[in-house]
Amino acid sequence: MRRLLLLSTAALLLGACGGRPMGGPDVDLRIAVAEDVVAPGVPFEVVVERTWPEGTQPAPFEAKDLAPLVVQAPGVARDEAQGRVRETRRYTAQVLALDDVRIPAATHRVLGPDGVVLRSVRSDVTDVRVATRLEAGDVDVEPPPEPLAERPVDVPWALLAGLAGLLAALGVVALRRRGRPSMGNEPFDAPRDAPAGPMWSARVAALGPVDAGDAVARARQVMLAADLLREAVGTARGVDARSFAASRLLRAIEEHVAGVATAEGTAPAVAGARDLLRLADRVKYGAHVPSREATQAGLDATSRVVGLLHPEAT
To answer: Which of 15, 77, 127, 212 is a plausible cystine mate for 292, CB 3.0–4.6 Å?
Structure first.
């Protein structure tokens, strides 16, 4: 009680002198991010630690005080020692931006029984570094909890019309060679379902060229190249590879290519496929805009791997 009266008296004196409530050794607010570098959409921990004298109450600490981070309800723990209370709040947070973000300084206010602010202190500004690229060996980026804003897509209608015409012509030729189409359910790995060599060549050629001035077109090229790579692996291996994890898909490429190429040819093909899949993940989940060089490297990797998986296409 005596301590509380002293605090109240100090607050009144400060008000009379025109001052503002200030912090002290037993009033503190610290905000810390557990990771040195975070990735967009990947959860990480933020720890908020507050202290205040026993016999007083803190003003509420709200999630908006950690903006622009997106946080979930925290776990809260308190302990009392040497006349003060220490509160630790652990938040699970995410960043939905591609650039570094800054958490502004937050204010911690200590209130008396009548709600008057006795003491206050502000935290330091907290900078959060956001990863701008995936390093070798990084795991796939998880999708964010909320959908990203849709980006306008310029559809290359002329290219799609030409490709549709080519596919229709090839389909007619295939039907004539078969006689009549089967009405039964065919297994995925039926040899006659595999695209012919010229079709693979045409689909690879249809991915390019890379337009240095059209970012949306480059992003679309990367996604189409990754889809074509998965389809080529599935057809060569006789499996449905569309839902394969990146690690499983790369293992399938390595096993198949090792039978038709030397070690010197296998390693670059697998490395190029790995880079393409990582780039596609960043485009899909992080709204990344691929550079002209990265897009061209992805198309070259697709052409190389498809050529090894389907030698008849070269």
So the answer is: 212
For residues 311 and 304, give the distance between their C-alpha atoms in angstroms, rounded to a whole number. 10
pLDDT, residue 264, reads: 66
For the segment 98-111, the average pLDDT, to the nearest whole number, is 90
Q: Average of pLDDT values for 221-241?
A: 88
CA–CA dist 91, 38 (Å, integer): 15
Identify the pLDDT of residue 87. 95
Nearest to 292 by CA among 235, 188, 238, 217: 217
Q: How far is CA 19 from CA 109, 120, 197, 257, in A?
A: 15, 12, 82, 76
Query: What tokens does 264 get?
Result: 């010197």
What's at 9, amino acid-wise?
A: T
- Sort residue 287 into left (φ over 0), alpha (ψ -120 to 50) or beta: left
Q: Is 121 helix (H, G, I), strand (E, B) or coil?
A: strand
Q: Which of 58, 77, 170 is nearest to 119 (CA)?
A: 58
Q: What's CA 95's distance to the chain center, in Å?
A: 9
Task: Count Cα neighbours of 291 within 13 Å in the Cβ-side half-sphere.
Answer: 5
**Residue 30, amino acid:** R
